[in-house]
Amino acid sequence: MPNALALAPVGSAQTIETISQNGRALCLLIRAASAPGVTTFLTPPDFNLQVGYVVHRQGHTIPRHFHLPVQRHIVGTSEVLIVREGRCKLDVYDVDRVLVATRELLPGDIMIMVSGGHGFRMQEDTVLLEIKQGPYPGVAEKERF
To answer: Is the pTM here over 0.85, yes or no?
Structure first.
């Protein structure tokens, strides 16, 4: 995957994992332990969401700016979930609704869902921060299975 973060495992756990099926990325998991030393984007330029770590040294300044109103055509909905508190199980499904993987998510872990489906089972009281494209059309954007 171009521009993917390549971090060494911390202990026995990977710091980033790509869950794929038939060569198609479904989900990226970035563990709380990941901490690159330089700016590193986790998603390739053609993904619907651009997600990455932006690293700056003390004293650096980002010049003030705004983003121009660029029109984009996006098909599908990608989302990022950050576990703020608690613990849950993530089930990742391929585009045919077949379970591909189950992973436990802990505080600080980040999930980037780029294809297929997903579901969650809370193991504790859990707070998730969700980020996805808007505007939100309501529950009509989802198909439950």
So the answer is: no
